[in-house]
Amino acid sequence: MIDDPETRAALTSIGLSDTDAVSFRAAKTVTVWDRDSDYAVIGAWNIDEIPVCVHRVTGEVFTAPPWSDEMDPLNTSVRTFAESLAAVDRAKPLSAVRYGTNVAASDQVKAFLEAIDADVLADPYSFWQTIIDDIKNGLYVE
Q1: Which of 4, 37, 103, 114 could form a disulfide with 59 if both were Cys (CB 3.0 to 4.6 A apart)?
Q2: Averaged over 34-54, what is the pLDDT?
């Protein structure tokens, strides 16, 4: 189902873990996405049940909000996606409780994510940029 060898290797060797930091839930079974067969669903953002999809050939990872025809870039690969999830999880609590201010918390998370996958984070429509903005606005109070 997944043509990209790096993606297959990442999914089988490191896998994806559920994380409470950003409410990601890994799919129990990777399936072809019903909206576009070029993509496979590897999980969902649990809050809104937003599918997280990987391009079956290139290995790029996207979110696919059900209310939009557009996909938002997430990471350049499954490996960088897994690394990003782990980095954000290690950064908890994602609020002023740990970092002094919500802005400082968002700056720290942004620095972690830029170190992992700067190309995608530079895109203003990146889903990670939305997470960073939410942290900055205090939506991750723990």
Answers
A1: 4
A2: 90
